[in-house]
Design a protein that fits this description.
362 residues; alpha+beta; Immunoglobulin-like; 3 domains; five-stranded antiparallel sheet; 5 helices
């Protein structure tokens, strides 16, 4: 606005001063004293010049732009790219790949300092004070945002516990998440099952299930910022006798003229010898006991090692229901692979449990 009126004021001041001087000289030649009009014109011209000078001073001192600069680093001194530095009601900037930033804002002598908000995804936001009268470079150190272990590593859904002949089995789905603003590698993944006494026997994670496909357990995952990956782990002990038994089972059923297409506990498919052998494997290798079982999941997220422990409890009824399936082995239920999880009225070959986390969180 001042720039818009400065030129007309300058011309008006020159005209007024010129006219006043012409009138003053004319009056002096006539021997007349300078009338009040001449003095008024001179005063008005000087006032216009004063306004012009004050406007320039105001622009220089009041409306000048101040340049702020500095760098943004993490606690290890590494440059942080993309950090936002914002002054409320004014402008701001972002740090580049070297961590450096620079921006200008309109400064005022009445503002002794400016407070800027500094933020970057994955880091704790903070406020930094800038001094307009001494705009020296500022070094800003951001700390990584602490994330709860539960937001990085968790169980998704329920745990399924079963016993198929001589193999105790457990299915659990683990959720790996990256809540930070950087891509990370999840490595050294470990999933283990044990009882309260620490016994694990041969119950090991041998396969994972992804999209219905069975494949070796993953030991490493790459997670983008905000990405969540869910992996289904299947646990099973190794029973060297089971393969031989399944061979006998296939041979015996292949010799039958009529084989039931649907499981029926009233139909006898297996010989007493095969039933007795299956029940012996059930009794010898039934691992599940009444009480608490622990499922421990560990993984390294970038440089941070995260370990979470989950527990689930089997009741006496759960254990008895899984063991009761042996009474129906003669009909093939609980023995044939396609019928191993089919319940009957008096037996429950699989138990679905909701795990409870007992791991400490920071």
């Amino acid at each position: 606005m001042l720039n818009a009126v400065k030129t007309p004021l300058s011309l008006a001041a020159l005209v007024l001063l010129l006219i006043s001087q012409i009138l003053r000289h004319a009056n002096e030649k006539r021997g007349r004293p300078n009338p009040g009009l001449v003095k008024w014109l001179m005063g008005l011209g000087l006032a216009c010049l004063t306004i012009i000078v004050l406007s320039d001073l105001l622009k220089h001192w009041w409306l000048q732009e101040i340049r702020f600069s500095g760098s943004v680093v993490d606690e290890a001194g590494m440059a942080l790219d993309g950090a936002a530095i914002r002054i409320p009601g004014a402008d701001g900037g972002r740090s580049d790949v070297t961590g450096a930033f620079a921006f200008t804002v309109p400064a005022s002598r009445s503002a002794p300092s400016y407070t800027a908000d500094v933020s970057l995804r994955g880091y704790v936001s903070q406020q930094v004070e800038f001094k307009p009268r001494r705009p020296e470079p500022v070094r800003i150190v951001l700390s990584r945002r602490p994330y709860l272990e539960g937001s990085m590593l968790n169980l998704s859904g329920q745990v399924v516990v079963r016993h198929f002949l001589g193999t105790p089995q457990l299915d659990a789905t683990v959720q790996f998440a990256n809540p930070s603003g950087d891509s990370i590698i999840v490595r050294e993944i470990s999933v283990a099952v044990s009882t309260s006494g620490g016994e694990s026997r041969l119950l090991l994670p041998e396969v994972t299930y992804m999209g219905g496909m069975v494949q070796p357990a993953w030991s490493m995952l790459a997670l983008a910022p905000g990405q969540v990956v869910t992996v289904g782990y299947g646990f099973s002990s190794v029973n060297s006798n089971l393969m031989a038994y399944q061979g006998k089972l296939a041979q015996a059923l292949g010799q039958k003229v009529v084989v039931a297409q649907l499981p029926d506990p009233r139909v006898t498919l297996l010989s007493p010898e095969l039933v007795r052998e299956a029940r012996q494997m059930l009794a010898a290798d039934f691992w599940w006991t009444v009480g608490t079982t622990h499922l421990t999941v560990s993984a390294t997220f970038g440089q941070r090692r995260v370990t979470r422990e989950f527990t689930f409890a089997l009741s006496a009824g759960d254990v008895a229901a899984m063991k009761a399936i042996g009474e129906f082995y003669g009909s093939g239920i609980g023995v044939l692979p396609a019928w191993r999880n089919i319940p009957v009225e008096q037996a429950r070959p699989a138990v679905v449990l909701l795990p409870v986390s007992v791991s400490p969180t920071p």
